[in-house]
Amino acid sequence: MGRSPCCEKAHTNKGAWTKEEDDRLIAYIRSHGEGCWRSLPKAAGLLRCGKSCRLRWINYLRPDLKRGNFTEEEDELIIKLHSLLGNKWSLIAGRLPGRTDNEIKNYWNTHIRRKLLNRGIDPATHRSINEAAQDTTSTISFAASAVKEEENPTTAAFGGKDAKSQVQERCPDLNLELRISPPCQNQYEPLKTGGASLCMACSLGLQTSKDCSCRVASKGSTSGSTSATGYDFLGLTSGVLDYRGLETK
DNA sequence: AATTGGTACAACCGCGAAAGC
DNA sequence: AGCTTTCGCGGTTGTACCAAT
């Protein structure tokens, strides 16, 4: 009943990729496109398993990858996204164009973890280490924005002085599993990005085209307020998390 | 110059989910 | 409906590189 191995290990190379292997993989994908990783190695004349080819392409060879150091903005965005999503590296990577999940995961483990520890923040919970030591319960936290909840009406309304929210925060037995849902536009004002209403696809970052009708309609009022990539999922790029689209079960 | 310890990152492994039959 | 195959994800490991001693 066990799974069959993804490849015949006796006849596959392992370890670092050679220039020739890279060239073969690039050439094959350029002419045939991505897909069917299992059969790709044979078709491309590579003695590698499909998984290895996929990883090499996604993490290293893809032409749209942004190589080089992470910027301070990217750092902060990763921290915010991690506080929200946890170790969902692929989701986090989806919000950072040109970055891969593997790259972000490595960067988190080598740089950001230490950076947060130096700030006195537990990288796992995003809470102050002192606070975490006193409190033996485990809670979800949006520490990065919680600091500002006093002065920020959006976060304050959601989890600030609200007694119920405080109870939830101190009671780990409550089911606080996050669920992402479309913005509730009836209950609240339309989701805005710098004053412009966006369609759901743009709000979720699924639609990045400048020509999306919602963007065309909102041109003029959005100049300079959206992120460089043209979307602002959960309001993260504005520096304030917008929790209206997030619900606890 | 050699050794050691720490860091960065590419690559591997195992698992779960989705897709296909 | 149930089984098998394939893909994608997250955790972990291996190793090259660099700085300190």
TrEMBL record:
<feature type="domain" description="Myb-like">
    <location>
        <begin position="62"/>
        <end position="112"/>
    </location>
</feature>
<dbReference type="InterPro" id="IPR001005">
    <property type="entry name" value="SANT/Myb"/>
</dbReference>
<feature type="domain" description="HTH myb-type">
    <location>
        <begin position="9"/>
        <end position="61"/>
    </location>
</feature>
<keyword id="KW-0539">Nucleus</keyword>
<dbReference type="GO" id="GO:0003677">
    <property type="term" value="F:DNA binding"/>
</dbReference>
<dbReference type="InterPro" id="IPR017930">
    <property type="entry name" value="Myb_dom"/>
</dbReference>
<dbReference type="InterPro" id="IPR015495">
    <property type="entry name" value="Myb_TF_plants"/>
</dbReference>
<protein>
    <submittedName>
        <fullName>Uncharacterized protein</fullName>
    </submittedName>
</protein>
<dbReference type="InterPro" id="IPR009057">
    <property type="entry name" value="Homeodomain-like_sf"/>
</dbReference>
<keyword id="KW-0677">Repeat</keyword>
<dbReference type="GO" id="GO:0005634">
    <property type="term" value="C:nucleus"/>
</dbReference>
<feature type="domain" description="HTH myb-type">
    <location>
        <begin position="62"/>
        <end position="116"/>
    </location>
</feature>
<dbReference type="Pfam" id="PF00249">
    <property type="entry name" value="Myb_DNA-binding"/>
</dbReference>
<feature type="domain" description="Myb-like">
    <location>
        <begin position="9"/>
        <end position="61"/>
    </location>
</feature>
<keyword id="KW-0238">DNA-binding</keyword>
